[in-house]
Design goal:
Elements (H helix, E strand, L loop, with lengths): L4 H10 L2 H11 L9 H7 L10 H17 L7 E5 L7 H4 L5 E6 L2 H13 L5 E5 L11 E7 L7 H9 L1 E15 L1 H11 L10 H10 L5 E14 H15 L5 H14 L4 E16 L9
Parallel strand pairs: 1-2, 1-4, 2-3, 4-5
Antiparallel strand pairs: 5-7, 6-7
């Protein structure tokens, strides 16, 4: 296959790490609302409801098995779960390693994690309340794990995460599909348009690491996240997302949307089914290379 000079130049740019770094820098200015604790405190109370989804359970079990198969979870290992939420992974991994460090920006999320850890009598868990972007890890960890967090939109933060991994870096991120019909219907009816998602998600990270010659192993999961929640909680979550997208919601529009949502609720409960595709990347760090990434 022959390429014209212009196509060749574009291909060279595409295969350069700086191309993806520049793209990440542009995109990282978006969705800043999700980088604060407000949203995560808001959704903390019913965050664990996601774990009841059969697809989520199956995906999580498989990701943990993949980490074990690759040697990323060993009895003498330290495991760093960044943006851990309520500890969905951290609590399951704790019995498999020597020590788990779980960091999150949301005190509400970490309060739930702490309670669950006490109930399960897990002793080898250190909880860290901090914003990863301002956190300086005191040492490196055998395995660093990050799952579905907006910090992954910034390749500068991804680089920092890999730098504190001694043996393995594992990342789980949205991969091009996240479709909630009810939320999309609200957006279309009340705002007359649907703003497209401009975040490249998993593919930004994979392509960047590919240009560095360390793509890792990728695995994809596709299915549905199913939730049942009160209309009030559903609307609080949806309103935050709409405002974060840049929509203006006055009192009248809010009343109209709530009336619309009431038609979809049964006895005050809304059931949603979000179609998703999620990618998991397993990267083994070459000996002595983590700090030089």
């Amino acid at each position: 296959m022959k390429f014209s000079p212009k196509k060749g130049d574009f291909l060279n740019r595409l295969l350069s790490p700086s191309f993806w770094e520049d793209l990440s820098s542009f995109r990282s200015r978006e969705k800043s609302a999700y980088l604060k604790s407000d949203f995560w405190n808001l959704v903390a109370e019913d965050y664990d409801a996601l774990e009841e989804s059969s697809f989520y359970k199956t995906m999580q079990e498989d990701i943990i098995l993949e980490m074990e198969r690759r040697g990323a979870l060993q009895r003498n290992f330290t495991f760093f779960d960044v943006c851990c939420g309520t500890g969905s992974y951290a609590l399951r991994i704790a019995p498999k390693v020597a020590q788990v460090y779980a960091l999150d920006i949301s005190p509400s999320m970490l309060e739930i994690l702490s309670k669950k850890a006490r109930e399960k009598d897990i002793k080898n868990l250190e909880i860290i309340e901090a914003d990863w972007r301002n956190y300086k890890p005191p040492h490196i960890y055998d395995t660093v794990f990050v799952s579905m967090t907006p910090i992954l939109r910034d390749l500068g933060e991804v680089k920092r995460l890999i730098q504190c991994a001694k043996r393995f870096f594992v990342v789980v991120q949205w991969a091009g599909l996240r479709k909630n019909p009810l939320a999309e219907e609200v957006e279309q009816i009340f705002f007359k348009r649907k703003k497209t998602e401009e975040n490249l998600g998993f593919f930004l990270i994979f392509n960047y690491l590919y240009t560095l010659g360390i793509p890792g192993d990728a695995k994809f999961y596709e299915g549905y996240f199913e939730r049942k929640t009160t209309l009030e909680k559903f609307w609080k979550r949806l309103k935050f997302r709409l405002v974060a997208k840049g929509y203006s919601i006055g009192p009248k529009k809010e009343r109209d949307i709530i009336k619309f949502l009431e038609k979809s609720a049964r006895e005050g409960i809304i059931e949603t089914k979000t179609e998703v595709r999620i990618g998991a990347l397993f990267l083994k760090i070459k000996e002595g290379k983590s700090g030089n990434f």
